[in-house]
Amino acid sequence: MNKISDILKDDPALVSEQAKFTRMQDGTLEDWQKIGAAHKQDFTKTADRFIDMLKQLENATLGFACDQLQHALMCGTLARRDGATDEQIVIALCHDIAKVINVPNHGPIAAEMMRPYISDDSYHVIRNHQAFQGEHYYHYMGAPTDLRLQWKDEPWYDLAVKLVDEWDAPAFDPDFEADSLESFIPLMRRVFHDSPMPL
Fold it and tell me: Measured between alpha carbons, how far is residue 111 from residues 108, 172, 192 in Å?
């Protein structure tokens, strides 16, 4: 039985080659080693893709007083000033990153994109952060404001409350002097590294 490490090899000779099969059922170990090598090389581009997505948020205000990049930078800055861990700073910075894809489902989309790189607690915080925000504005929409309480016994509950109430909710000031995106890039490269966890 081959291990995943036998497939995901750093083999430059294999990266430019392509598998021969046209149906997965017909693939050989050699085919999958070629595919694995190409995937392994592609993993090195993940952090850059997240950085590019953050940059795209500058084009979206979505009705708020500041654009979504400024909001993200404020969240990351507030987390950093609060003494958060590298991972917590990055999830604060990137919690709304999937708004470049789809606003209504941005929490679950962002959580799934980050899942191979972050802890289970951080995954659940990102996935459910909008329900936690509901305490602040769902009453204007005729929706329940206490949705967060369904997770009050979860180990990630306190982090979700902190992310939403202390870093996210107060982060809509266009005049706030947030740390630059460039200052967060080393953290993003550490979190979105070249060896994602298999799911």
Answer: 5, 22, 13
Q: Identify the CA nearest to 129 among candidates 88, 101, 185.
A: 88
Residues 54-86 pLDDT 10s? 999 999 999 999 999 999 999 999 999 999 999
Alpha-carbon distance of 42 to 195, in angstroms, equals 10
Helices (H), the chain: 4-7, 12-15, 29-43, 46-56, 68-81, 86-94, 106-114, 120-137, 157-162, 181-191
Distance CA 41, CA 135 (A): 43
Residues 99/129, Cβ–Cβ less than 8 Å: no
Distance CA 11, CA 120 (A): 31
CB 71 within 8 A of CB 172: yes
